[in-house]
Amino acid sequence: MKKLVSLFFAAAMLLAPCHAWAGQGRILKIDFKSAITEHGSSSFSLASLSLGYLGTGSISLLNMVRAIDAATTDPSVSMIYMTPDNISAGMAQMEEVRAALARFRASGKQIVAYCENLSNASYYIASVADKVILNPASENYLLGLGTQQVFLKDALDALGVEVQLIRHGKYKSAGEMYTRSDFSPENYEQYSVMVNSLWNAMCNDIAGSRSFTADEFRGWVNDLTLTDAESFLEKGLVDELWHKDQVEDYFCEQSGFPMIKLVKFVSLKRYSDKLNRSFKKKNRRNKDKVAVVYANGEIVVSPSGTSMSSELIIGKNLAATLAKVRKDDKIKAVVFRVNSPGGSVMASELIRREVDLLQAAKPVIASYGEYAASGGYWISTGTDRIFTDRTTLTGSIGCFSLVPNLGGAIRSKLKVNFATVNSSDHSDMMSGMRHLDDSEVAYLQSQVEYIYDRFTTLVSDGRGISKDSVDVLGQGRVWAGSDALGIGLVDEIGGLNEAIAYAAQTAGLTSYGVVEYPEIKPFNLMALLGEEDDVEETLTSDNDPSISAMLQRCFPYAAALRRKCEPVMMARMTAAYSFN
Fold first, then answer.
1. Which of 33, 109, 172, 362 is catalytic?
2. The pTM is what?
3. 467 DSSP 8-state letter
4. Assign residue 535 a region: left if phi > 0, alpha if psi is -120 to 50, beta otherwise?
5. Alpha helices in 256-332 (DSSP H)
6. Is residue 172 among the annotated active site residues?
7. For this structure, is 340 an active site residue?
8. Is 295 buried (19+), middle (13-18) or exposed (0-12) by CB count in 10 A?
9. pLDDT per residue as tens digits for the range 366-403
């Protein structure tokens, strides 16, 4: 019988005049099954794999926001239906997606959100909807934001491994995981302020879309009063407690169709793919371009460095990309999209030099993602204008060097001894086999001080702030984007789309195409498996008899120290927080 009804209505749709169905419009469906990434990827990506999204690929933030904004003015799209249970994105990325959804709602078009369960992330997105529907049997955990950091000193002490930290900046905490057993007072202070700034931004957004205040919402979360689905309904966080079939009945009633499969849904991926084809045609027609150059990941000199990050910015490669963009006369302005916690000072300086040369040729506008800290701030502080999300982590103006001493562990655990013959008193200070003496620490400290002075000078020149003021704001301290605006480290709260529009305006463009760099390479299975020369070396196998492999098996985190024993100057931050 259902098949007969389905055939009847399908035939009716074909026979009816086109205008009879035009007013109902399609429903843009956003299921958030693909990870939202900075730059997108092939259908199979390391990013989606690391996030547990095997086979689903990813969608770039720009493509997602562009699709939602296009749907806002598209007469063929009548509403959005989203299911954000499994959203996978950074906080800043979610902030930009939510802002696009808010623009859609402000246009007068409806958004319906349905969640099987609620978390910080899923409710942050769902709360922007006109109608929020929750499964009555849901399991919900709205607990606020928190940060957890690993401290390895006790474990390293047990192994006999010593790590000496030489730094400038009392808040520069990236190396403390190896030298402390708990937060330092300064580190606790900065993360306490930062986490609360991020949480306040979320609460204000949520309350702005609902009928309660931010203080009320914070109180409910703090007092653990949001437990079962009924409590969410009672407090006004959701509008309906429905099962999935009831949600389908709602869409059938709204559209006038008797069966859900007759309702005209279009997936975000399909809509975005079609939109991208039209954008490519527009790009071909427009001679003038705005380039978006992505700096996404930890900054390293080469992929064989000490990084354990899945995303890397290779200094010389990004510098070459910036040089290519500078020499392209069709590109009239550039958005430098930074999503990086920093890394190598040398690699950061390579990139910064090319940014300076690029800025001398055309406008360069920075747009910050989840992080733009330490080296990420170094490479972008001199741009013409800096856009940031409120939940971006930025600043961390400081420098440090970590010097591991593996000698004690090797002698006590492996019963291997070393004897050294030096031509000079300090020839073996880089060997990583002994403790540095006071003069050697002072030698490295002088290099750290030189780099810190260089960093503060760059910020002072780029931001128009005195060096003394930069030093007060610096000291390695990390700031939330909303706080960074108030102290002059950034210029404006806004996302990637706003930065692109501003760059075009600065260049005097009214019609332009958007091109993205670096170009996304096709998926390469051999590269993923580590069988190409330019891919970072895979972790040491259990059959490797080397000392570093033995230490690694004794304690997994020793992998972070195994590559180089010589000190490396780093401009990097460490941050971890729970969003879900």
1. 172
2. 0.84
3. H
4. beta
5. 268-285, 315-327
6. yes
7. no
8. buried
9. 999 999 999 999 999 999 999 999 999 999 999 988 88
